[in-house]
Amino acid sequence: MKAINDNYGHSIGDRYIKKAAMTIKSSVQNEDVFSKIGGDEFAIILTEIDYFKADDIVDRF
């Protein structure tokens, strides 16, 4: 993300963060908790999910 901000500006970097957030949010259940915790860091609390499904989600990102 730093490279995008440095080369194209923060407004473009913000667009990439929003796109990433939408992509991640669409990959989890409505009951899951999804949050931005830092500049380009996200956290997901997966609820009612088994290890294998959680592992599949992690592998996508």
From TrEMBL:
Pfam family, one: GGDEF
Entries under Gene3D superfamilies matching the protein: 3.30.70.270
Domain of life (superkingdom): Bacteria
Signal peptide annotation: none
Alphabetized GO MF terms: diguanylate cyclase activity
Annotated GGDEF domain residues: 1-61
InterPro entries: Diguanylate_Cyclase (IPR050469), GGDEF_dom (IPR000160), Nucleotide_cyclase (IPR029787), Rev_trsase/Diguanyl_cyclase (IPR043128)
Protein name: Diguanylate cyclase (GGDEF) domain-containing protein
Organism: Halanaerobium congolense
